[in-house]
Amino acid sequence: MSVIDGQKRLRKIGNLVASGSALSKEDRTFLSAALRDIADGEDAAEALDVKAKRGERKSKKSRERKKTMQFALGWIAAARLPEEEGGLGLTLEDACAKLGENGLKAFGLTEETIRSYWNKNPENRSVEFKIED
Q1: CA–CA dist 37, 43 (Å, integer)
Q2: Which residues, other chains included, contact 41 with Cβ-Cβ below 8 Å and sequence gap of 6+?
Q3: Contact criterion met (CB below 8 Å) for 99 and 107
Q4: pTM of the model as a whole
Q5: How far apart are CA 116 and CA 105, in angstroms?
Q6: What is the pLDDT along the chain (133 residues), one digit of tens a residue?
Q7: Residues whose CB is less than 8 angstroms from the CB of residue 98 and which lie 6 or more positions away in sequence, other chains included
């Protein structure tokens, strides 16, 4: 399980506990075992299955940065569409310039950063995308 999946699970359990809803048997077993392990001195991140691997980011800020990238790349994809299809008919260079620090400054990203995101993340070059929690 990735650290992000572990964090989602803990958020779900935390929301259930806060609302007074019953936990599933699986979640109760997981949480009770983790709390016992922590009480016995095990690392909390490891016991709760949210220990990041080398190079893996787990902060809220890094998740927000990923969302910003997806929004920016979605805007670029839409701006590159021909005008007949509802786009602006811009080239990649023009779209990056319009969105970057010398244009709209919409996402707080520089033209170079936007271009780098575009080149390194072809899977996010779509007008339609799903934002993960």
Answers
A1: 8
A2: none
A3: yes
A4: 0.61
A5: 16
A6: 788 888 889 999 999 999 999 999 999 999 999 999 999 999 999 999 888 888 777 777 877 888 899 999 999 999 999 999 999 999 999 999 999 888 888 888 999 999 999 999 999 899 987 877 6
A7: 79, 90, 104
CB 91 within 8 A of CB 98: no
Record the tokens describing residue 56, joined without a space: 């893996």
Using an 8 Å Cβ cutoff, are 49 and 57 in contact? Answer: no
- Among candidate residues 115, 116, 83, 77, the one with its CA nearest the CA of residue 96: 115
DSSP conformation letters of 77-125: HHHHS-GGGTS----HHHHHHHHSTTTT--SS--HHHHHHHHHH-GGG-
Residue type, 118: W
